[in-house]
Write a structure and sequence with these properties.
mainly beta; Jelly Rolls; nine-stranded antiparallel β-sheet; six-stranded antiparallel β-sheet; globular
Length: about 290
């Protein structure tokens, strides 16, 4: 397909991200390095970081211009990245607007890895430590989670978009003691002003990433946003409401994780590797992926 006439999303155009820097309609396997050797020139790679096994063609099926993903091993949604750690080649995102049209049904059983469209810092992914995520930024454009619907008592899928600052180095201190923590934006449509339960249909998920700012979109509609800096606590907003939402430790006082001054600012030093991921028992379909830059 020609991408010349693909419309620029309004939020991307308003922010000046009008160049299509990555686009895949999954018309064939030609954009995927199925060899697992990390050869240059592909949009997606099957050799995976953090000690995960190489994906096979049986786990990545393309039919009618739709990618059907069903990885056998996919803990933490480490699916198919845009960068090869073996070949040291591929695409990384430094600000821009990333969007994908995705469909995910309900899981077929026990699962380890949720349907996700997300990014992790390249510098952390290139480290040899399989544990990883010592001090890096993570942008979850989409994660599909599950919880009980209080109105029906049934477990359902719901949408969330998340920003993480992983910090496991012990360098942060509180009252002289190291703080092992992960600053996390759990601000999403669920649990605040509306519930955004997901049906089993196609939806477009997107995130706009600018210096000090991330906004999440569902089917072109602004859902929530985060602002961060090196010298302040991060602030989270619902839509364009100027009133900040509670931070993680305020919304979840029972949890050990909390934010700190400068949390999420690691993002502005990152180049994010974009990843499509899910689990064998919770597969997903991807119609297309587009990333807009300058």
């Amino acid at each position: 397909m020609s991408f010349k006439n693909v419309p620029i999303p309004a939020a991307a155009e308003a922010a000046g991200y009008t160049k299509l820097v990555l686009a895949d309609d999954f018309d064939s396997y030609d954009t995927i390095d199925l060899s697992g050797e990390g050869k240059p020139g592909y949009l997606w790679y099957t050799d995976r970081p953090y000690g995960k096994s190489t994906l096979t063609k049986d786990e990545l099926q393309i039919k009618d211009s739709v990618l059907f993903m069903k990885p056998l091993e996919c803990a933490a949604a480490i699916g198919m990245p845009t960068y090869s750690t073996k070949g040291k080649t591929g695409f990384v995102m430094k600000y821009g607007y990333a969007e994908a049209r995705i469909r995910a049904n309900e899981p077929e059983g026990t699962y380890n890895g949720v349907p996700a469209f997300w990014g992790i810092g390249l510098r952390d992914m290139l480290k040899t430590d399989p544990v990883g995520w010592k001090d890096c930024g993570e942008l979850d454009i989409l994660e599909i989670e599950r919880c009980e619907d209080p109105e029906t008592g049934k477990t359902r899928n719901y949408y969330t978009g998340t920003l993480h600052h992983h910090h496991r180095t012990g360098e942060l201190k509180e009252n002289g003691a190291p703080v092992q923590t992960c600053g996390t934006n759990f601000i999403n449509a669920l649990g605040y002003k509306e519930r955004r339960w997901l049906d089993n249909e196609w939806h477009t998920y997107a995130a706009l990433w600018e210096p000090g700012h991330v906004s999440w979109y569902l089917d072109g509609r602004l859902m929530h946003s985060a602002r961060y800096s090196t010298d302040a606590l991060p602030e989270y907003y619902y839509r364009d409401d100027p009133t900040p939402l509670p931070r993680y430790e305020e919304a979840h006082p029972e949890a050990a994780n909390r934010t700190w001054v400068g949390a999420h600012s690691v993002m502005d030093g990152e180049e994010e590797v974009i990843i499509l991921g899910c689990n064998y028992n919770w597969p997903m379909e991807v119609d297309w992926v587009r990333i807009w830059g300058k």
